[in-house]
Amino acid sequence: MKVSSVLKKASAILMTAVIAISACGCQGKAPEDNTAEITVNQGDILAEMTIQIGEETGKIRFKLFPDVAPVGVENFVTLAENGYYDGKTIHRVIEDFMIQGGSLRGDGAGGTTANKMDVPRETNDRMRAYYGALGYAESSMGINSQFFIVNNKKPFDINKTAENIQADLEEYKDRLSEKDKKYYEDYLASLNAVSDDVKAKYLSKGGSFSIDGNYTIFGQCIEGFEFIDKISQVEVSSGNDIDDKQGIDSKPTVSITIKKIAIARIPYIDETTTTAKKKPSRPAQTTASSSDENSSDAPSQSDDSAVIITPETTTVADSESEAPESSTEEESSEAEQ
Length: 337
What we know:
single chain; Cyclophilin; 8-stranded antiparallel beta sheet; 12 strands; 24% helix
């Protein structure tokens, strides 16, 4: 079933959790991810963000992936249904990287989890940071309520990037330190390990490849990309400490308010009786697949609980440490001389 046909009915389900939908799915369906074509089926969970920029209001709809991030989805859904996000702000906007919101006080500091649950990092090599991906930022206390949306839609050619790095390694191998050489060799290995369909999607849709595996991606935009773009284009100034240290303006000069995040569950439909049966709202928890938490390349979080999602693959030790540079994918593809 095409996404558009379901979303025409989605406003009803987002308010009443009841819609008519053809039997295109079934219980026990195969796990899904955001690399494959995104479809909306029976048993799916949708989230609709209503966001106001100044006097303009728009909606962004996401499909959530509890098969991949069961605890993360449960946390987000519970917070949304309890009204936590109502009135919170989008406090950080970096064009061609991401937008971030959901902090406790609207300044990037603080957050909470549903029912004081511990939310682990849940990663999967099929859930990638494509344009429109919905993920969790992290703080020194771990994951809480703060989320980010990838807003970079510039095509990223993984094969070309790998070729450039390979050429640079060969040309500058006698001038690179062992540390730098290892960094580029490891990055090259990560590029070469990517499957063809992931490469194709980054090339066609864009995204932020360098954060793959370092943050939980638990949702994907299915409608409202134009409003993501509108948020991304607001005027920004200094005011976010983590970015100010790098000379990056990221604080919106206009108020961007999350009016509401509504959750919809597409009911299961028995093909013989047409009796709707809801999927359990509490996903079963599984062991998270995550990258090495102790890796020096994994962004750590500040002691003041400011939740940060850092551009590219660099390290933030704490609130006193220097924030990572906002380099582009292309810039990181060339070894330094």
